[in-house]
Amino acid sequence: MARTPGSSAQNEAKRRRAIEIIKGGSTQAEAAKQVRVILRTVQRWWKLYRDHGDDGLQSTKATGRPRRLTEKASEKLGKILVKGAVAAGFPNELWTSKRVLTVIKSEFNVTYHANHLPRLLRSLGFTPQRPQREAAEKDREQIKKWVRYTWTRIKKKPEPGKPR
Known about the structure:
By secondary structure, this protein is mainly alpha-helical. Among the domains are: 8-57; 71-123, no CATH class. Helix content is 52%, strand content 0%. It has helices at 8-23, 28-35, 39-52, 71-83, 97-108, 117-123, 140-154. Helix 1 runs antiparallel to helix 2 and helix 2 (28-35) packs across helix 3. The longest helix has 16 residues, at 8-23.
């Protein structure tokens, strides 16, 4: 259902004007012509007025689709994520999208598409992180020695007198 153009106040005034025209003895079709909307819109306004009175003509905020996870469930998910992946039954501490989706499905019986997960996690205060890969055989002392002695010896030096 499309919203009529204009601000909330303008739309409310338009609705009230249409109702006054109908109350004055005109038909709904005439009211629709005068306020420049289609007949179906005036019919809907008239039904709202009949069922709810003046309150039915007030503008309401478009709420959008309801959340799948309740506030309470979101808080519980946040606590599960903070405890860690091992506490949730996974072999290591790495949270992947699949793992988070598995937890959501098993704990709350709610499914999300993987592309929506970053938005959900940001709303809970989490940001995507990737572990830094580092070789297990890495020897920091040997790297420092190599950079200090070998690298400085083999690094090309500009020829004297030539611009860089």
